[in-house]
Amino acid sequence: MPTVEVTHTVAAGEPEAWAAVIDVEGYAACMDNVRSVRLVEKLTGERRLIAWSTFLKGSILEWTEEELLDHDAHRIVFHQTSGDLERFSGYWQVAPVGGGGSVITLYVDFEIGIPLLADMLNPVAVTALRENALQMLAGIERRLVSSR
């Protein structure tokens, strides 16, 4: 199963970075590759259902995911409940680094769902998802800088 993991260090404390990561409905305003992110439903406890629409290499990728927020660990674990890919899951993590900053990690594992073309499509998808993830993390950093 293909995976993508990207990290980005930001000059913001862990609580501030965590607040920016969990505010998914603000993503489209600071991320060019995100068309929309919408809270569909708050589920029981710290679970929520989120609908995504993103640009990926000139195409539109859409899915709905269930997220579990762990505010103590500053971690969101997610998995696709419906959407364009066969499987899409992973996590966001915010952790402190020296000097008062934070590192934000986005990890994704996925299956396109076309087994006969997987050898050809997976490397392209990994590259595209990595680029999108890096753009998203840079967008979070821009939002943190502009809010100061």
From TrEMBL:
Source species, domain of life: Bacteria
Coenzyme Q-binding protein COQ10 START domain span: 16-133
A Pfam family it matches: Polyketide_cyc
Protein's UniProt name: SRPBCC family protein
